[in-house]
Write a structure and sequence with these properties.
The structure is a single chain. By secondary structure, this protein is mainly α. It is 43% helix and 6% strand. The strands form two sheets. Strands 1-2 form a two-stranded antiparallel ribbon. Strands 3-4 form a two-stranded antiparallel sheet. α5 crosses α6. The chain is globular and about 70 Å long. It starts with a helix and ends in a 5-residue tail after the last helix.
Length: 186
């Protein structure tokens, strides 16, 4: 009985589910890999990554791994609202964001200061993305409205029309910015 159970649950079932996933959802089952215009894999639609160049949209902070965005260490920071370490990190991120985005209007969106539960969220709200548009426009030497148009064209709606919130994928927007305006200078 133990051998049959091991074969069924440890071998047959995982192989059947993997095969079914690849048949029905091939791209997702293979990791939703994203390629640039030269065909090089530059990331996954499902995993956030760090972008620091001013000509790119920046995602949420990450607590995954020692330096953040480590897909092998997906986790939240587990820091609570009374944590001095969390306050210190948010204060530092707030100062950095304000310094890097002097032309942004309104307060810094909260999601640019708080990490997601996994630390690997690849999405931002359209509002948080648009808040960064002036910085991106200056770095790329284009009008802010053109950057906003690229962001707006990348908005993903709610799943099944009702689940979740509208969002943009940071990696896909950055690749779209490169296709539209060329890669930013160093």
């Amino acid at each position: 009985a133990a051998l049959v159970t091991m074969v069924l649950t440890g071998l047959a079932y995982p192989l059947a589910i993997t095969g079914l996933a690849q048949l029905l959802f091939g791209d997702r089952a293979e990791g939703s890999l994203v390629e640039d215009e030269r065909g090089n894999v530059v990331g996954s639609e499902l995993i956030g990554q760090r972008f620091t160049h001013p000509g790119y949209l920046q995602g949420r902070p990450s607590a995954a791994g020692e330096d953040g965005y480590d897909a092998t260490s997906s986790a939240g920071s587990n820091l609570g609202p009374t944590s001095a370490a969390l306050r210190e990190r948010i204060t530092g991120d707030l100062a950095r964001l304000l310094a890097e985005n002097p032309d942004a209007s309104g307060p810094v969106p909260a999601e640019l200061l708080t990490a997601s539960g996994s630390g690997l969220d690849p999405h931002l709200s359209p509002e948080a993305a648009a808040w960064q548009a002036p910085r991106i426009a200056v770095a790329r030497g284009v009008a802010s409205e053109r950057v906003r148009a690229v962001i707006e064209s990348a908005v993903e709606g709610r799943e099944l029309g009702v689940l979740g919130q509208p969002r943009v994928n940071v990696l896909l927007v950055n690749l779209s910015l490169d296709r539209t305006f060329g890669r930013p200078g160093a």
